[in-house]
Amino acid sequence: MKPPAAISWGSGRLDVFGIGTDNAMFHRAWDGQWAPSEWESLGGVFVSPPAAVSWGAGRLDVFGLGSDNAMFHRAWDGQWAPSEWESLGGIFLSPPTAVSWGAGRLDLFGIGTNNAMYHKAWDGQWSSGWESLGGIFLSPPTAVSWGAGRLDLFGIGLDNAMYHRAWDGQWAPSEWERLGGVFVNR
After folding, report:
1. C-beta atoms surrounding 36 within 10 Å
2. pTM: predicted TM-score of the whole model, two decimal places
3. Which residues, in sequence order, are CB contacts of 129 under 8 Å at separation 6+?
4. In this structure, are strands 59-65 and 71-76 parallel, antiparallel, or unpaired?
5. Can you give the residue ranges of every domain in the chain?
6. Minimal CA–CA distance to 95: which of 47, 45, 133?
7. Are 57 and 65 in contact (CB under 8 A)?
C-alpha cells in the first residue's frame, strides 16, 4: 500500500497525489470542486508513495522513487513541467520527503542503500549530487521548516530511538542528536 500525499498552496486549494494500480502517479485538485472530473495520470512508474510540497500560490512539486529506485520530479507552475518525469538520480530505500522554507527553495531527503540520510536542494537549480548527512536509519526521514533558512530533520535509528539534525546556515549538531525514546518503524 502506498499512501497518498496531499498539499495546499493556499486557502481553499488542495492537491492530492496517489500511485495507481499501474504504478503511475495520479492527481486531482480541489478549488471549490474536484478537478479534473476524473483522476489525471501524470505517468511514470513508481515504487514509493509520492511526496508533494509547495513553495507558494500556484506552485507544486511532486516526487517519487522510480522502478530503478532513483528520485523523480515534476512541477506545476500553470502546467506540468518538465513534460516527462525528471530523474534526480540516487538509489534510495525510503520514500522521499520534501520541504520548502520559502519561494524558490526546496529540500529533498531520502535514505540511501547504506541506510544513511541524503539531501538535495533546489535554489534556482538542483544542487549537484546528493549530500550525505550520515547516520544509519530504519525509517524514512521527516523534515519541517519553521522559517526561511531553517530545516529540522528527524529519523529513527538502528536502536529505535529518534534522531535529529537542523540546518540554520550549517548542519547542527555536527553529528545526529539522539532524542531517545523507543519507536516502532512500520
Report:
1. 9
2. 0.95
3. 89, 120
4. antiparallel
5. 90-186
6. 47
7. no
